[in-house]
Prior knowledge:
Layout: H1 2-20, H2 22-26, E1 45-50, E2 57-63, E3 71-77, H3 91-97, E4 100-104, H4 119-135, E5 138-148, H5 150-161, E6 168-172, H6 178-188, H7 192-200, H8 208-213, E7 230-236, H9 248-263, H10 268-274, H11 284-293, E8 304-305, E9 308-316, E10 319-324, E11 349-354, H12 356-359, H13 364-371, E12 376-379, H14 399-414, E13 421-425, H15 439-455, H16 457-462, E14 465-469, H17 486-503, E15 507-509, H18 512-515, H19 519-522, H20 531-549
Parallel strand pairs: 3-4, 3-5, 5-6, 6-7, 7-10, 11-12, 11-13, 13-14, 14-15
Antiparallel strand pairs: 1-2, 2-4, 8-9, 9-10
Helix pairs in contact: 4-5, 6-7, 9-10, 13-20, 14-15, 15-17
Pfam family, one: Lipase_GDSL_2
Domain SGNH hydrolase-type esterase: 357-535
Organism: Flavobacterium pokkalii
Amino acid sequence: MLKFFSQHRLIVVLFLFLFLNLHLIAQDDPAWDNTTKTNWKNAFKVVDIPSSIDGKNQKAYMYASKSNFKKPLIVSLHTWSGDYTQKDPLTNEIIARDWNYIHPNFRGSNNNPEATGSKWVIADIEDAIAFAIKNTNTDPNEVHIVGVSGGGLATLIAFMNIKYPVKTFSAWAPISDLEAWYWESVGRKQKYANDILKSVSTDSVFNFEEAKKRSPLYQTYPIDLRKNAKLFIYEGVHDGYIGSVPITHSINIYNRLAGELIYGVSDIESINNKAEVDSNLVSKANTISLLTKRYNPNYQEKNILYDRSVYLAKKFQNIQLTIFEGGHEQIPQALGLIPIDKTIDKKCNILTLGDSNGFNKDGWVDQLKKRMPNANIINISKSGRTIGFDNNGKKELNALANIDEFLNSAQKQLKGKKCNYIILCLGTNDTKSVFAEKQNEVIVNFESLLNKIKQHSIYHKSKTKLIFVTPPPMRTKNILDKYIGGNERLQVLVPQLMKIAAQYKFEVIDIYNPLLGIIDYYAQDGIHMSGGGQDIIAGKIIDKISKQLQ
Length: 550
């Protein structure tokens, strides 16, 4: 019995120890402030940018688009403890989209007076934009700043201070009030309190005036300069509990900016008082409810941010706030949320032949229609379609067996008009498990399909331009049984399809390799990408068509 009570007492002591120290365990540096990963792909080069304010060289990682056409520029800002060498999760998608990119240093980690929202930081970000525009094929009207955590703070600082007419600012889990965050970090026993102290104070006494001076919440809002820019504020509802920045930072900066647009006042206390009766703003009751529940029982299930539920969405003019199911983070699909003007004014007739990725709502054909609003696109894609197999025993899904009928039907719909482009994107379903032993037939079927297309009168009468888009990759794990091993088969198949297509004078677009690094988070089932991922495919088709128009 004595032994039992001794063991019981030990369990109680251990429990009390864990309980009393839980806040220390839970408040480790968040993953988004991880500075240990510094490996960059060879496509990104280190550049030196002389500072316009003090002449010091500020390094950055930069990627220049390989396109012949003007492309957007993404200015990605590192986190609180990071610098330009910190690995950026956006880089895989930058390569996939082939957008211009720069990842500047702006005085490195936020633990010294030259960093942390200083005048040097503001100048360095503007210098990085100017350098990238000069040294890449950037469309100067498509410059976009994005940052998470400390990068979110820097994004807000840029919104309030830089002169360049940036099109969009995306601040994820941002800090907006350094004084508030100092005391929050003291309470959480996090290193950030000491970092802020070293940034704003010359001694051990916290300089709250300097902290407020560097806080976007209290800075002058350049309304006229930003009237054509958009600010997107994103915050995970659990941040502050399983992250380092309470959601009040995002709510307060939204209220401050939207409130100034509505009432012409900048005092956050006055604006928050007005929020009690103004549905354009976030009330104290809504704020407290989100802080305590970390959930909104009245949220609309259809209101989602890719795969995340949205518990609060507010927008006034060009300022937008989104509180979503998540923590201290930037979702992987962040670049897919940035609005880019990507349309081309081209009147032409296009025939598209694909599988479910072309047939589904928001698939690559739908994205192409959005990008080419004046084009007449005849889509003969179908879920389950193959190059040359009767998928699921259905002959109508066999493109080779039905290609003449498909082309005859398209010709009738054109009513004598030219077919300017035929775009073919097939092969995913040909690599299903059921066809694993027939991969040699895929090559034969593909060559026969291309041959039939080139023999048809729709091609000869119109001098149609032909485009082959490779099948996209698929996930290798957590995928439907019928697709197991499919990506491995695609790795072998895609180069062969590309070679044959080129031999038949098709323009070839490789989407398989660029999408490998991002398929997992754009395709929930590992096969079918959401609209943001499908848009990448459409963008590559647009580039090819635009090049042919030159």
